[in-house]
Specification:
Strand order of the largest sheet: 1-2
Number of strands: 4
Strand content: 5-15%
Oligomer: single chain
Largest sheet: 2 strands, antiparallel
């Protein structure tokens, strides 16, 4: 009979350990920056992120599809922010 160790909350632990890749660590930092800049809850960002295990290195990496969607959303958000800045500047010129 095999006994699987458990940790707090009853989560089964397989004994296999994985480290975060440098890209995954960088993405976590990027999520923190995004939360600070946008005033959003970091927990929501952490719940949305998706990771995968690289079978060659054994490291945890950001899932490629998630990374692509995140990048596209970030680019769209930056474009909207730049457009809002431009519109605000144009309004100030007209009023001034």
């Amino acid at each position: 009979m095999e006994i699987t160790p458990t940790i707090s909350g009853g989560l089964n632990v397989t004994g296999v350990e994985h480290n975060l890749s440098d890209d995954a660590i960088g993405h976590v930092a990027q999520l923190l920056q995004l939360a600070i800049l946008t005033g959003t809850d970091i927990i929501d960002h952490f719940r949305a992120v998706r990771f995968t295990i690289n079978t060659n290195s054994g490291q945890i990496e950001v899932h490629p599809q998630y990374a692509e969607n995140f990048s596209n959303n970030l680019e769209r958000m930056l474009a909207e922010a730049n457009e809002n800045i431009t519109n605000t500047s144009d309004e100030e010129v007209v009023e001034g």
